[in-house]
Amino acid sequence: MTAADPQTRAITPKILYYGMPVILITTRNEDHTTNISPISSSFALGDNIVLGISTSSKAYDNLTLHPECVINLPSAPLWENVERIAPYTGRTVVPEFKEAMGFTHEKNKFAAGGFTPVDSEVVQPSRISECPLQIEAQVQRMTVPEYDPFFAIVETRAVQVHAHSDILIGEHHIDPRRWNPLIYNFRHYFGLGDPLGATFRSET
């Protein structure tokens, strides 16, 4: 047997948002307007980006009808803009459990959050101008696990990437010293701290 670890103890946290980038996913509504949904569950594998979204969200409804989106990544200074739209849902009928948590309906989240829509090049939903990284993506597959039907796993493929010029180094690289993504850490917003070093595969 191995020894118990005196530094840890077993806990039961209500949530496991243990520090992930905030994403503002834009999707296409039935009337061809664009909805914004804040999410914080994602990871990238090459050009493939996997998202975790609630099946009670307008984003889920929209992706079911129109399987494309823009993955907009806000920088840390935009946290107040993100928080302004956090209590809103694009669904006209607010699910009871969301209503109990204080959610209300808001169709124009661009205005509510102080964001500016800009046209995408490949997909239909608008991009968010203020976000330094904007990734147009097409949905490859959506899966609702039997063990947890409240969430969907959305597999997307990036088809066009846009970046603010002030976070670029060279033609196609993001400068990690200038890019400061907004991080959602146990329901609190954070930016990045000082750099610690680079992996041996870094090109910048």
Give a structural overview.
- This protein starts with 17 loop residues before the first strand and ends in a 14-residue tail after the last strand.
- The chain contains four helices and 16 strands.
- Strand 9 and strand 10 (127-128) form a beta hairpin.
- It has a seven-stranded antiparallel beta sheet, covered by helices on one side. Strands 1-15-16 form a three-stranded antiparallel beta sheet, with no helix packed on it.
- The model has no long low-confidence stretch (mean pLDDT 93).
- With 204 residues, it is mostly beta strands.
Strand and helix map with partners:
Layout: E1 18-21, E2 23-28, E3 34-39, E4 42-45, E5 48-54, H1 58-65, E6 68-73, H2 79-85, E7 88-89, H3 96-100, E8 104-105, H4 109-113, E9 117-118, E10 127-128, E11 133-143, E12 151-163, E13 168-169, E14 173-174, E15 183-185, E16 188-190
Parallel strand pairs: 7-8
Antiparallel strand pairs: 1-15, 2-3, 2-6, 4-5, 5-12, 6-11, 9-10, 11-12, 13-14, 15-16
How would you concisely characterize the structure shown here?
Helices cover 12% and strands 37% of the residues.
